[in-house]
Write a structure and sequence with these properties.
Layout: H1 2-14, H2 16-28, H3 30-47, H4 56-67, H5 69-85, H6 90-101, H7 103-108, H8 112-119, H9 129-140, H10 142-155
Helix pairs in contact: 2-5, 2-10, 5-6, 8-9
Amino acid sequence: MKKYINKFWRWYEANLKLNIGIAAFLFVWQLFHLFWLSTDVVAERLVSFSLFNLTELWELLVIAIDYGEIPAIVTVSLVYVNELRKGISRGRNILYLILLNSQWFHIFWITDEFVVSKFRGVAETILPLWLAWVAVGIDYLELPVMYDTISKFFTTKSKKK
């Protein structure tokens, strides 16, 4: 098994710029999700009206982008695991992995559906409103990791074969 893991990391390193680029591309799509969350859901809760009402097409796009969060988390996690494996910036990389992987709580426990229904007062649950705010906060934990991943893409040099 170790042979295959080492082979994977050799391939990953040989294609580092491409791998970081794919991770950053998948991750940047989450900005649209954060835009929707801020201008529709959070704005409606704070100022009593939405700044971005979704049509059916836009709603489908937000849902598709939201499902893209899983491959984004996996591919971006590989960027930071690779750096940890090489001993680069241990503290920062661990922090970014924690911020990034906190998204799993949001995806599987405190879902967007819960947040929307709780903010709009239609949630049929005993879970408190503050938990919805925690989910929103978790979504925003992606931003520093997103910035760092994009920066890594632009500063990583392609390896010549």
